Write a sequence for this structure.
């Protein structure tokens, strides 16, 4: 009995050491993770718009009849943004019923008839709104406005942004898998089944005739990703192609659940082509992925780190990319206060702008400010080659949130949307904490 007890003690001691080793490999310490989780939940609670609630004196109350989740708290964003919400679902703080209702609203506002706005922009069949007004449920397919009839224009794109279609698929995937409600894919919304609406959305972002990468042109430009809607990027587009890869795998799984094996295989094949072509077309000699092949053909931190996170970059290509991101972080060209630039400071297009074409001034907003949204992806990538550096970056991010936590009072605002040089912009911003939390939950 004594020998058995000794063996049992030794086994438990070994398991405890092993568990401790696993915990030590986590990007965040338990205390910091729990803090981030609590802050994210508080921000999401603040971001909810309940039926009848008024967010802004310039808009009426929420008449959709459902609870919506906007991009941030306090008195901002009197609308429902599909992209920001979809990027936050996996936090675990959105109930299945809330997911269902926001999915139905999005499906109901999908474009069912191609039309041209007063500004001259085209909204094609299958397009998903950029945001939906809370007072009258009108879909606004372009950033920069709440005006239904006059939306779009060359500044904001001649066709809607290319990301929201794929985020609509992500919304459906998260709800179907999370609730195990595959039959819901056959539900008709305005006479069209949900699964058919997902395919309609998938086909909206254009490609070259025989291609799979998302593509746009100067004359008929669409914004590649809403987190850089003031940046002009053309040619083959990296970031929405990453989203298309994820959406392809998600559609394949949804068709598998419907026992439509041919359809599942079709989307699996597209995902395989994207996985091969993305590094082949966009990777530079350093391992960074370029944002595009036309205007804005610049090394893109967000695309590179997300490609690592999604498993698109593998082997030597992944190692090269992750090592370069680690080196950029250590040299100070990547991050500030744990927040991440779109473009490394050493890769700015010129002395007057980070991106080649931007509506924002250099070192402000999407043209060189620092954002927390992509911090999780970057930490994940750096951890592939240097766990200590990744932990340090994650800790800087948490320390900045703690210092400016909006719950301390009205003069505090973290999580901020971004830092323009050292000046923060847009308080209580959901994606700044929700996107990193999703990564840190499992890493």
């Amino acid at each position: 009995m004594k020998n058995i007890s000794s063996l049992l003690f030794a086994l438990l001691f070994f398991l405890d050491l092993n568990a401790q080793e696993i915990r030590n490999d986590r990007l965040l310490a338990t205390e910091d993770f729990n803090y981030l989780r609590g802050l994210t939940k508080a921000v999401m609670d603040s971001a909810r718009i309940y039926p009848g609630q008024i967010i802004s004196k310039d808009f009426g109350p929420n008449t959709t009849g459902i609870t919506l989740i906007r991009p941030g708290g306090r008195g901002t964003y009197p609308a429902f943004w599909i992209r920001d919400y979809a990027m936050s679902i996996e936090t675990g703080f959105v109930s299945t019923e809330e997911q269902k209702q926001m999915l139905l609203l999005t499906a109901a506002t999908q474009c069912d008839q191609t039309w041209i706005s007063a500004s001259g922009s085209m909204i094609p069949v299958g397009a998903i709104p950029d945001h939906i007004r809370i007072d009258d449920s009108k879909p606004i397919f372009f950033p920069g406005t709440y005006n239904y009839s006059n939306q779009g224009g060359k500044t904001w794109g001649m066709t809607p942004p290319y990301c929201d279609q794929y985020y609509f698929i992500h919304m459906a995937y998260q709800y179907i898998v999370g609730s195990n409600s595959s039959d819901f894919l056959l539900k008709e919304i305005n006479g069209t089944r949900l699964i058919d609406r997902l395919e309609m959305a998938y086909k909206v972002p254009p490609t070259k005739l025989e291609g799979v990468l998302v593509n746009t042109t100067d004359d008929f430009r669409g914004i590649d990703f809403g987190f850089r809607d003031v940046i002009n990027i053309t040619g083959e587009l990296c970031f929405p192609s990453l989203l298309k890869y994820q959406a392809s795998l998600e559609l394949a799984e949804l068709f598998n659940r419907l026992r439509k094996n041919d359809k599942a295989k079709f989307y699996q094949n597209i995902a395989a082509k994207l996985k091969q072509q993305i590094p082949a077309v966009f990777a530079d000699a350093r391992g960074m992925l370029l944002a595009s092949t036309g205007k804005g053909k610049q090394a893109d931190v967000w695309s590179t780190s997300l490609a690592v996170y999604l498993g698109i970059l593998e082997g030597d290509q992944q190692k090269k990319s992750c090592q370069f991101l680690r080196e950029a972080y250590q040299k100070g060209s990547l991050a500030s206060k744990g927040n991440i630039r779109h473009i490394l400071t050493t890769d700015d297009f010129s002395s007057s702008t980070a991106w080649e074409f931007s509506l924002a001034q250099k070192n402000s907003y999407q043209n060189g400010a620092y954002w927390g949204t992509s911090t999780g992806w970057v930490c994940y990538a750096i951890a592939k080659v240097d766990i200590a550096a990744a932990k340090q970056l994650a800790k800087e991010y948490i320390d900045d949130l703690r210092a400016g936590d909006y719950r301390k009072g009205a003069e505090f605002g973290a999580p901020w949307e971004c830092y323009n040089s050292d000046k923060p912009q847009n308080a209580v911003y959901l994606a700044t904490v929700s996107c990193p939390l999703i990564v840190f939950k499992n890493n």
Notes: The two ends are 40 Å apart (CA to CA).
